[in-house]
Amino acid sequence: MSRYQQLHSGSQNPGGQMPAFPPAYDDSGALENAGDVFTSGPPIEQFEIDEDEVYEPPKRESLVKRAFFATRTFVYTFKDNFGVPLSRYLDPIYEGYNYFNMKYELSILKLGNPLVVKRLIYVLFVIVLMYLVTRSENSDGVNGASGGAFSTGKFYDVDMLADTMKQYIEAASLKENIEYLSSMPHLAGTTGDLAMVRYVETYFHNNGVQQVDFHELDSFLNYPDKEGTYVKLADGSFSATLSEGSDKSMQNLAFNPTSPSTNGEIDARYIYVNYGEMEDFGRLDKAGVSVKDAILLIRYGGVTPESNKVYAATQLGAKAVIFISPTIEWAGEKHDDMIQRVNVGHTRVCYGDVLTPGWSSHSIGSANWEKSEITAKIPTIPISWKDGEVLVKKLGNSGADFGEGRYSGDGAVSLKLNILNKKRNTHLIWNVVGSISGREQAGKGIIFGAARDSLGYGASTSASGTATLLELVKVFTSLQRRYDWYPSRSIYFVSFDATEYNLAGSGEWLEEKRKQLFEGGYAYIDVSEIATGDVLTILTNPMFLSTIREELRKISLTEEQKKQKSNMATLYDLYKSQHGDKDIFSNNLVEYKNYIPFINRLNYPCLDVGFRGKPIPRGSTLDSFGNFVKELDSSMLEHIQIVELLARVGLRLAEDPVLPFDFIGLASDLLRYQQDLEKYVNEQISFFSSNAQVDYSKLKNALESFRQNFRQLHEFRTHWKEFIKSTSSMEPAMLAGSRKAANENMMNAAFTFLMRQDSQPSRAGYFNLLFGTPYNAPPFDDGVHEWNTFPMVRDFASTGDFRKVQIEIDRLADILITTSEEYSQVP
């Protein structure tokens, strides 16, 4: 009961009313009187009473005071409930610690100087701790054994990284990108092309590529004009349809990139020359049919590049060339009205801008059209098969017989031809270069490159290749984000423009960046025609052989592919089943693709992989996304396999601490190439009815020496791997130095086969003595010869100059010996 309640229930005043407040008491008198009243009890001790406490109504304490008292209460409670019991448990432990510490100190004194002994024990403890840490890191995650030469101190588990890649490859994104990239016409230098290049650039940025460069270059470009261009019989009875379909938009019009216009109308007789091969011109000669001052009808195809056909026609005095496009079965229909557009710049002499052959368009001015070595000197234009058949039948049965009811004609029928192309001597083209910098050798790198421009919609060609390039970007940047990973050496992703114009985008980029590419690059992977059939096709430099075989074994087949043959599980099994149960890869990188400059100017080892085998409407508007999904890889499963294969190979090339270049495979294949060269030269000796004798003994001995010497690098790689696996410890500094030196030797060995900078080859863009494209090689892998080898020897043999053949063979032998002696050593 409160004091107020006690007072309220006590005695009342005489009036029967409780006073508003009890009366105040005199401090002294009250106590004295009280002593008189309570005489029977013990004396009461006097004390002061705080009037405020008794009489004032209770007040609420301030927040600070209440918090202070609550905290103090909590501390006392915690101490009583937890502190005291814990102290009871720790006191015996502390006593035990004191006891053992005393014993420890006594033991140290028995061993010797306590200060020295304690330091030795500390060092031993640190060594054991480091050992345990390295052991745990070696077996956990993608980080492998430690490497003293790497800035992160780690070698990464390449297999674990590669196995992770597949989860980032998506059919949906591949298909969406192909659909968008083929949604509009994008001839080089047009607004459609600019839209595509900005899309690629944005994709690079959005996926975390930190270094993205937008390169503007100058190049000659030309475009068709629907006004004033015609092909018709002189009597007016027939005119060719120079567009695909009724739409006269630019992408549908007939024209050949880098072809000149006519200088006014050409009115001349026309001659049919079949495929325009050397044998076809020989038939005309035997039949007494002259092509001088004539218009030539030539079919696309055969074993001679179209630009070489135009050059031959020019040399024989023809006035113009009309190309006849083939028929094609595509998207469930047969098309005889397709018009293919093909570059006629003289690529086999030099690639790049046709007005700056062999030099950068930014460094020196352009050459005159007539003075340039690689411009077509006569106008050309393509027509459809249907219109070509009309013109051929008009020739009757006169002249040379080419079979199938087709004759050359004798010059009795004439054509009128006028071509008005819009030309731009210097027009902007655009490359986009994205890169992931290396952590150990940032100045060295591999290059993934894809053509972006198209002469139509390019669904199965440039769009498919560019979409695959974008998927590779996504895969590698996803690895970065997941594992905080950077490759040992840099990785570059390049979208090339103007590939359809004599490889102008890659050729001009190489000319402008030649010094950097010469010093910094060591491999090029072309990303093109990913799925244009069902036959797995691999064209590669021999130095990739072991890597490709190894990675093919790690990629699973689709259910549809497994049905082709029993007991197949991987792409390696599929490749062997489709190629005579052999795993031999061709080196015939001779198509008009962006690897041509990298091989012939820099001697980069190159790779071109894809599912192929079907004819496609290359350079036609039939190559649309709608037709692509009807005819080719609509499920994207083959695209996924090629993305995984390219990513795995690229990862090995960029991440393996010791470069996975297969010099043993290279040496073995060089011996095989030498046998093919001997066969080719003998064929030419027979063709020219020559009695020349060519000695190959020096070359054979040099190749054998090359194989023996470079075995050292192979053994070093094997021993290095065994050491790292067995020790699971830091890579010694001297071993790291040897590894880096071995990598440098492997990269630099390729450059020794290039002609000196002060030398000028007979073909301005072709400097490679060991690998490269001979002038007369077919524009595809025909399986007849290893065309992409010993190009200068083959060139001299094809012209009948066997004295120079011997000189070039001996020069190659000397280079092989010097290279194997200087670059096979491991410091």
UniProtKB/TrEMBL annotation:
Signal peptide region: none
Matches recorded under PANTHER family: N-ACETYLATED-ALPHA-LINKED ACIDIC DIPEPTIDASE, ZINC METALLOPROTEASE TRE2-RELATED
Superkingdom: Eukaryota
Region (Disordered) location: 1-23
InterPro entries recorded: PA_dom_sf, Peptidase_M28, Peptidase_M28B, TFR-like_dimer_dom, TFR-like_dimer_dom_sf
Biased composition (Polar residues): 1-15
Family matches, as SUPFAM superfamilies: PA domain, Transferrin receptor-like dimerisation domain, Zn-dependent exopeptidases
Family: Belongs to the peptidase M28 family. M28B subfamily.
Organism field: Sungouiella intermedia
Protein name: CIC11C00000002559
Domain Transferrin receptor-like dimerisation intervals: 694-821
Domain Peptidase M28: 431-572
Upper taxonomic lineage: Eukaryota, Fungi, Dikarya, Ascomycota, Saccharomycotina
Matching Pfam families: Peptidase_M28 (PF04389), TFR_dimer (PF04253)
